[in-house]
Amino acid sequence: xxxxxxxxxxxxxxxxxxxxxxxxxxxxxxxxxxxxxxxxxxxxxxxxxxxxxxxxxxxxxxxxxxxxxxxxxxxxxxxxxxxxxxxxxxxxxxxxxxxxxxxxxx
Length: 106
What we know:
The protein is α+β, with helices and mostly antiparallel strands.
């Protein structure tokens, strides 16, 4: 199984095979909208990559704190509202995750 992690780090889009990267925590510091979510380069690139690979899934990796789970669920809901197929989105708790990570999984 191949993994490709995509995230926003310091304003740069990172795509790293078999490694995880974090979504900028600033996403959660303000009210979200569909436009704000898709304006995040990490989210936009993850969705584009997911759409170009019919067999891939997008894992939303989150910490075990209740707030982290709520953030992951909210991001998943935004993606579904933006026409990403819900069956291709998975939440995964990781006790080591400090923030939300997006992982494209084949």
